[in-house]
């Protein structure tokens, strides 16, 4: 169960970080001084909730295993809307074939470098080693939610997941 007053914290943050997941307290931190729009906050909350989901499901070793961190960052970038076409256009990054994967990879590397003191080469290697498995892990959505309507469909599918397997 998630409690707003216990599991979410709004704070002023340094730099251009928009939020984070604190594994020690199981708390999502939203950087109130760096989030200017509701849509941005929605993406940050979704991104950090994916980290919280991974923390509960996969027992991620956030501090000692950079591959664990890389996997969660790949999943969060892939599933949170960080790499939508509109966000990429706003960042002046264009491309068609394979661009979503490129964006997810780049954002995962940037996130690792923002939270860990590792070299860019170490972050790139960790991301590359786990990319395919983690990019294809779509839990808890079952699909990449490309729009708000698609996210609602994914949530409805999630709510009804037991109906599909109950008769097997």
TrEMBL record:
**MF annotations from Gene Ontology:** metal ion binding; metalloendopeptidase activity
GO cellular component annotations, sorted alphabetically?
A: mitochondrion
Q: Does the keyword Phosphoprotein apply?
A: no
Broad EC category: hydrolase
Tell me which Gene Ontology terms the entry assigns under biological process: mitochondrial protein processing; mitochondrial proton-transporting ATP synthase complex assembly
Q: Which family does it belong to?
A: Belongs to the peptidase M76 family.
Tell me the PANTHER family matching this sequence. Answer: MITOCHONDRIAL INNER MEMBRANE PROTEASE, MITOCHONDRIAL INNER MEMBRANE PROTEASE ATP23 HOMOLOG
Q: What is this protein identified as?
A: Mitochondrial inner membrane protease ATP23
Which organism's genome codes for this protein? Donacobius atricapilla
């Amino acid at each position: 169960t998630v409690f707003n007053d216990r599991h979410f914290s709004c704070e002023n943050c340094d730099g251009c970080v928009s939020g984070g997941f604190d594994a020690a307290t199981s708390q999502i931190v939203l950087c109130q001084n760096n989030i200017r729009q509701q849509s941005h906050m929605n993406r940050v909350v979704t991104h950090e909730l994916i980290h919280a989901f991974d923390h509960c499901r996969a027992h991620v070793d956030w501090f000692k295993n950079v591959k664990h961190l890389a996997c969660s960052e790949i999943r969060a970038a892939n599933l949170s809307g960080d790499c939508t076409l509109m966000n990429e256009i706003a960042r002046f990054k264009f491309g068609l074939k394979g661009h979503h994967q490129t964006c997810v990879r780049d954002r995962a590397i940037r996130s690792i470098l923002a939270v860990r003191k590792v070299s860019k080469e170490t972050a790139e290697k960790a991301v590359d080693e786990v990319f395919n498995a983690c990019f294809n892990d779509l839990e808890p959505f079952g699909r990449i939610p490309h729009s708000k309507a698609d996210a609602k469909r994914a949530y409805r599918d999630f709510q009804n997941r037991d109906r599909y397997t109950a008769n097997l």
